[in-house]
Structure formats: C-alpha cells, structure tokens
C-alpha cells in the first residue's frame, strides 16, 4: 500500500483517525450525514476504518469501502478499499463474498504487494468453513488447494508459513474423516470396507497423526478376515515406526494371543509399503 505501509500493517493496525462527522466539524445534534460523493476517497475510506473499529457488525463498514471503489474506481484508495472489502467480509464470516472480493483484487492488481494477502484470504475463507469431521469434506479439499496456491505462488511472503501450518491441519482433517468411516465399518464387521479406508490413510496420509491407529485397525480388520500374513505385516510396520505407541501394544497383544508376531509376511500391498519404508521411500 502507499506510504510504505504493507497490507499487514494497514489491516492489522486500522489506524485511529480523526472523526469525519459532518462538514462543519461541530457535530450539531440534528446535523445530517454528509453525502459521500462530496467527500474525498481518503475520507470515505477512513469512515470505513472507523466503522470497522467501532461497530460490532463489521459488515456495516463494507458500505464505505464499496463506495470508495464506486466513486473513485481508478484511485489508489479504491485498490486499498477492495482488499479491505475482502478482509471485512471474512471478518463477518461472509466467506463467499470474501472470496469474490479477493478474487477481484487479484484480477485487477495481480502484481500488487497485497496480492499474497488476497490469495491468503481466499484460502482462509475455505479453511474457516471446514466443519466437524462428520460433515462433507468438499471444502477441505478446496482449502487444501487454495493453501497450496499461497505456498507455491508466494513462498517468500509472510503468509506462506501460516498457510503451511493450516495445510497440515486440513490434511489431518481429511485423514480423520477416513478414520471415522473406517472405524464405523470395523465396528459393523464390514472388514473389507474398513480396510479400504485405513489403507487410504496409510498410503495417502502418512504424515498425519492417524497413521499409527490406521495400522492398528488394519491388524484388527485382517485378523477378522483370517488374513494373518497381512495382519502381521501391518503390525511389523507399526512396530518399526511407532513402537512406543499404545496402538502397537494393542496390536502386539492381538497378534501374540493368536500365536502370531509382528513380521513381514507375503507380498501384499503392506509388504510393499514395508520394503519401500526400509529403503527410506516411505514416511
């Protein structure tokens, strides 16, 4: 932004400015609000800042920021007002409007210093809508893609690190969804369906916090099907990577109770995973 102030400084600080209450400045009790088209772009913009600071409903500030853009469309204040629209919509949890305003900013000012922030706001508008694990995960996928865009397109920006952290959390969220469904199938003794879910976690979500449990549940499911080689192999992978985990202790007890041990057996997909792991290509 102009004057050496970055988007983070303006959006984080929201400077306290002098009150713009009417033309005369005296603030007569019955004075009407001055028509915005008689004010400068800066004056209208600062009205929006004041409203955003002082009102409980952030959306009421949108009026001023949109008027700056309407009345002074080619000014630097219009550019600043547009990014503030995106910020204010997001603050008010109007996520679709926030995405639209951020996208318009990127369309009009792709090379601007606040482009990274606009892209980050778009990602946040998806990320902040991620619901509890039991709901549809379509927004999680959209959040992951948007966060990846921030990381890849603006790797040196101040938003890249935050995007990385949120990407990991969203990724973990997807794994949690697979685990929830897998546990349900396992409880119903639909072992094959459960295995399919836990396999996704082991193969596609290896870096999440759910991998150890997924391997343990595979031991349970394969034992339920009488597929001892696969159960032992899942236990071997679990023991190799998570020996101190309570999930490994549980798997070890399940196996030894049947006279089995955690050991790579056969040539299943799990055996291939184990061999890849030993070569350092897994986890």
UniProtKB/TrEMBL annotation:
Annotated CDD domains? BamD
Q: Which GO terms describe its cellular component?
A: cell outer membrane
- Major localization class: membrane
Return the Pfam families for the record: YfiO
Q: Quote the subcellular location field of this record.
A: Cell outer membrane
- Membrane topology classification: Lipid-anchor
Coiled coil spans: none
What the entry lists under InterPro entries is as follows: BamD, BamD-like, TPR-like_helical_dom_sf
PROSITE patterns per record? PROKAR_LIPOPROTEIN
Q: Is Membrane among the key words of this record?
A: yes
Q: Name one GO biological process term.
A: protein insertion into membrane
* SUPFAM superfamilies named among the record's database cross-references: TPR-like
Which keywords accompany this UniProt record? Cell outer membrane, Lipoprotein, Membrane, Palmitate, Signal
Domain Outer membrane lipoprotein BamD-like: residue ranges: 40-234
The entry sums up its family as follows: Belongs to the BamD family.
Q: What the protein does?
A: Part of the outer membrane protein assembly complex, which is involved in assembly and insertion of beta-barrel proteins into the outer membrane.
Share what the entry says about its subunit structure, partners included: Part of the Bam complex.
Q: What name goes with this protein?
A: Outer membrane protein assembly factor BamD
Gene name, per UniProt, is: bamD
